[in-house]
């Protein structure tokens, strides 16, 4: 493992990296930074959470002339939240070099973005639609671009985005460098990518599996109408610090969120029909751990880096096997451990196998916790809360009453009664979700991927499908995503056990 000092990075950038707390370069950073600094086009593939943002951010910023106040680099990302996050990271890396990045994305007042662009940033992190809008209004000019990055490149070059990307890249007429990054890069997309690039170098961080090995992966065979209770049982037995639950459609996410709120969990939903300002609030409440459960469509599957996510639940399996890799990659980041649980209905087992084939690893089957497991889990949570209260010294003013009780009663009886009172009953409030159809694996998956699940994608827009996921996550038609939960126990109180 190399330190950043060994990678020919200039002092101002090194200073930022040190302040960000990065000591040594991750493998993708070690390999991609020198290649990108040499001005080459490249495709970088490395597992989720391994620092790809810095791998393109550092060379991009190093190549910028800070005294030139025109836009010299763009990063294009598939979702608004990711564009915002990438801009934040670029601003951190560029802070001592005076390199400024402005995020540009749909759903935010365009005049506000135009004002920010007038302050002459050197970098822009954007979603494709809004970027094109600015190009057409001439509020963004691409004639000084030296580096163009497609983050989540395979997604950006897939249906739904490809036309916009072609239109954007066609606007960059002068010589420039193109960098593509993702944790997944299907061969078909890689071939397509080469059309946009000049003799690209393929930098793949060697890994036996596509998914990170410190994410434990399990699946549960559950009938469609039993999924919600199974989910609650898992939440009660494990009481995750921060969890993301993926549902297949916007409606599903809304129903799941209200169901969880009804049962007393702290949950909020995010999908493409939720107003942008609300989406940003939902994400920031989740980041600061005010909300413990984020319920999401695939709009949150890619790139989001939220510290402290311990669990990812695939309430519904994703249609694309690649999406599984990205969804579960929201946990287990930067070397931390994570848990990934997936529900498969009996008719979806073949589809699950196709996911295993892509990730080159077995996902282990587990049984849904029983009622008594749940009671035990809730009791453990009560004990943790009790201990935490002792350790944080929050209970001094109760000492007199405690001494009084202990002078009359047996100590074990007293503590047992306290635990009993603190232990929550499993909440069985009735919740009914609209059923969704099982996802079928395409028979040709293993033999001919070209025509396999990708075909599913176009088919997915047709009738009978429960509505494709809002991968673009862009529409802005209002809708609701559930409110703030009551919050069972503050997770800050429970941190010490995990
Ligand atoms: N050299 C480093 N040392 C320590 N932490 C790092 C380093 N580089 C990046 N990180 C941290 O690792 C986390 C993941 O980084 P990043 O979001 O860039 O991953 P990624 O590879 O882009 O993942 P994804 O495929 O999910 O988009 C971030 O919290 C980042 O701050
Ligand atoms: Mg990333």
Automatic annotation (TrEMBL):
Catalysis: reaction(s): ATP + H2O = ADP + phosphate + H(+)
SUPFAM superfamilies in the cross-refs: P-loop containing nucleoside triphosphate hydrolases
InterPro entries assigned to the protein according to its UniProt record, in alphabetical order: DEAD/DEAH_box_helicase_dom, DEAD/DEAH_RhlB, DEAD_box_RNA_helicases, Helicase_ATP-bd, Helicase_C-like, P-loop_NTPase, RNA-helicase_DEAD-box_CS, RNA_helicase_DEAD_Q_motif
Ranges of compositional bias, category Gly residues: 475-486
Residue span, DEAD-box RNA helicase Q domain: 2-30
SMART domains (UniProt xref): DEXDc, HELICc
Record-level GO cellular component terms: cytosol; ribosome
Enzyme Commission identifier(s): 3.6.4.13
Annotated Helicase C-terminal domain residues: 214-375
UniProt KW keywords: ATP-binding, Cytoplasm, Helicase, Hydrolase, Nucleotide-binding
Location of the region described as Disordered in the Swiss-Prot/TrEMBL record: 442-498
Superkingdom as given in the UniProt entry: Bacteria
Protein family per UniProt: Belongs to the DEAD box helicase family.
Protein name as annotated: ATP-dependent RNA helicase CshA
């Amino acid at each position: 493992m190399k330190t950043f000092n060994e990678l020919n990075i200039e002092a101002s950038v090194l200073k930022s990296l040190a302040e960000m707390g990065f000591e040594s370069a991750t493998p993708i950073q070690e390999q991609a930074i020198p290649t990108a600094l040499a001005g080459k086009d490249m495709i970088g593939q490395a597992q989720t959470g391994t620092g790809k943002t810095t791998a393109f951010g550092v060379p991009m910023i190093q190549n910028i002339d800070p005294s030139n106040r025109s836009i010299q680099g763009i990063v294009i990302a598939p979702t608004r939240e990711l564009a915002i996050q990438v801009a934040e990271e670029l601003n951190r890396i560029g802070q001592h070099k005076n390199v400024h990045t402005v995020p540009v994305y749909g759903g935010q007042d365009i005049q506000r973005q135009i004002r920010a662009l007038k302050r002459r940033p050197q970098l822009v992190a954007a979603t494709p639609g809004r970027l094109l809008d600015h190009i057409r209004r001439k509020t963004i000019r691409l004639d000084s671009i030296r580096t163009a990055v497609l983050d989540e490149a395979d997604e950006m070059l897939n249906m739904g985005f490809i036309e916009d990307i072609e239109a954007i890249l066609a606007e960059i007429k002068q010589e420039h460098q193109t960098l593509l990054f993702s944790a997944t890069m299907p061969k078909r997309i890689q071939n397509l990518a080469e059309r946009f690039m000049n003799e690209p170098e393929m930098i793949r961080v060697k890994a036996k599996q596509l998914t990170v090995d410190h994410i434990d992966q399990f699946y549960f065979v559950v009938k469609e109408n039993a999924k919600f209770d199974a989910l609650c049982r898992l939440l009660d037995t494990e009481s995750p610090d921060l969890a993301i639950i993926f549902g297949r459609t916007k409606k599903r996410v809304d129903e799941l969120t209200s169901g969880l709120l009804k049962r007393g969990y702290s949950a909020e939903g995010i999908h493409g029909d939720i107003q942008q300002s609300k989406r940003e609030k939902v994400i920031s409440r989740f980041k600061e751990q005010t909300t413990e459960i984020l319920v999401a469509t695939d709009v949150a599957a890619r790139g989001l880096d939220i510290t402290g996510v311990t669990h990812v639940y695939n309430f519904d399996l994703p249609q694309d096997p690649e999406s599984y890799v990205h969804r579960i990659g929201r946990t287990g980041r930067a070397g931390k451990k994570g848990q990934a649980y997936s529900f498969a209905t009996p008719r979806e087992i073949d589809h699950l196998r196709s996911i295993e084939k892509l990730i080159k690893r077995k996902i282990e089957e587990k049984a849904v916790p029983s009622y008594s497991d749940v009671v035990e889990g809730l009791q453990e949570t009560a004990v943790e809360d009790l201990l935490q209260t002792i350790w944080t010294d929050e209970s001094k003013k109760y000492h007199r009453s405690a001494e009084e009780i202990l002078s009359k009663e047996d100590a074990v009886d007293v503590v047992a009664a306290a635990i009993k009172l603190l232990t929550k009953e499993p909440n069985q409030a009735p919740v009914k979700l609209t059923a969704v159809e099982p996802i079928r694996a395409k028979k040709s998956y293993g033999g001919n991927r070209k025509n396999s699940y990708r075909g599913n994608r176009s088919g997915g827009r047709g009738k009978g499908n429960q509505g494709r996921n809002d991968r673009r996550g862009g529409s802005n038609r209002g809708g609701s995503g559930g409110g703030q939960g009551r919050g069972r126990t503050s997770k800050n109180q429970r941190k010490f056990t995990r």
